[in-house]
Amino acid sequence: MRVAVLKGGRSLERQVSLVSGGRVEDALERLGHDPTGVDVGHDLIPRLRDIDPEVVFVALHGQGGEDGAVQELLEALGVPYTGPPPAACAISRDKALSKHLLRDAGIATPDFLVLSETTFKELGAAAALPDVGERLGFPLVVKPARGGSAMGVRFAGATEELPAALVAAFSYDDKVVFERHVRGRELAISVLGGEALPIVEAVPHESDVYDFEARYTIGRTTFHCPAQMDEEATRAASEVAIGVCALLGLSACARVDLLLDEDGTPWVIEANAIPGLTETSLLPQAAEAAGMGFDALVERILDLAHRA
After folding, report:
1. Among all residues, which ones are annotated catalytic?
2. How many helices, marked H, and strands, marked E, lie in the chain?
3. Which pick of 84, 146, 168, 217 has the fewest CB atoms within 10 Å?
4. pLDDT tens profile 231-260
5. Contact 93, 101 (CB under 8 A)
6. How far apart are CA 260 and CA 179, in angstroms?
7. What is the tens place of the pLDDT at every residue in 32-74?
8. Strand 112-116's sheet: what is its strand order?
9. What is the 3-state secondary structure (H, E, C) of 134-150?
10. pLDDT beyond 80 at 172
């Protein structure tokens, strides 16, 4: 099968995407397919027309790949592609929007507030920062509404720490989410074809922050898969992840990140429409624990391609 593998692009997650895409290409070759890697840019349309793919494998992270943009384009071209459709990508990419939907649906997600750059420039939102802290309580997680790989995420323990955290978050997006910090175990649940894979728990070595370096530097984090949880807690968390994917329209393949607090409540942090496929990524680890090697995982994602 002729497969165009979309990777790279111009987002801040370019390097992660290049690694994911390269691993997918290698797997497709081993599986007997005919893959062509496409570093996404202005020549995407002529490249796709030249390749004439039977399906497009989307390994494109960040803006343009996970926000529904390339999916809309592929819909226009009438080319089947892996991953969820445009609306689901756009919703899950926007943490503010997805958290509103989660809260409205009664799914536990840490309490939050959202402020845009416009509110600071034109409405004087800086004067309301003490109110944000009082409303949500410290410590707070301050993060870009549309970002990935923990880029631009900062913690604020008091009102005076909020301005610096805002500067970091606004350097990645013009909309920022203030989220009540929930202390708990970092869990990731991948959902493939509507079924939850074994849960991965991430335990960073250097600190209790699962940041960009901890995610992508081999040896910085210990991963437990399956996570050491009792059967009831595993089932409850998995059901939450499946429900999140159904709510947001994340068909085929997605990953839901949660924090499991000391009372056993799974708090949904975010959902990822195009999970990473690097050596340290969580979806491949979960698949491996389920008895599915990387090549079989790639084949399964290809089988679940969205028909435009």
Report:
1. 13, 149, 216, 255, 257, 270, 272, 276
2. 12, 13
3. 217
4. 999 999 999 999 999 999 998 899 999 999
5. no
6. 16
7. 999 999 999 999 999 999 999 999 999 999 888 999 999 999 9
8. 112-116, 175-180, 140-144, 154-156
9. HHHCCCEEEEECCCCCC
10. yes
* C-beta separation of 185 from 260 below 8 A: yes
Where would I find the H helices in the chain? 14-30, 44-51, 69-77, 86-93, 95-104, 117-122, 129-136, 162-170, 212-216, 231-248, 282-289, 294-303
Distance CA 181, CA 179 (A): 6
Quickly count: other Cβ atoms within 10 Å of residue 295's Cβ: 15
Residue 287 contacts residue 197 (beta carbons within 8 Å): yes
The two three-digit tokens of residue 192, written as one number: 């493939």
What tokens appear for 105 in the block? 């649906």
What b/e string do you get for 157-173 counting C-beta neighbours within 10 Å, with b at 16 or more?
eeeebbeebbebbbebb
Encoded amino acid at 3, one letter: V
Q: How far apart, in whole angstroms, are the C-alpha atoms of residue 49 and residue 101?
A: 38
DSSP calls for 240-268: HHHHHHHHHT--SEEEEEEEE-TTSPEEE
Distance, CA of 100 to CA of 106 (rounded, Å): 10
Q: Which residues are bridge partners to 115 per DSSP? A: 176
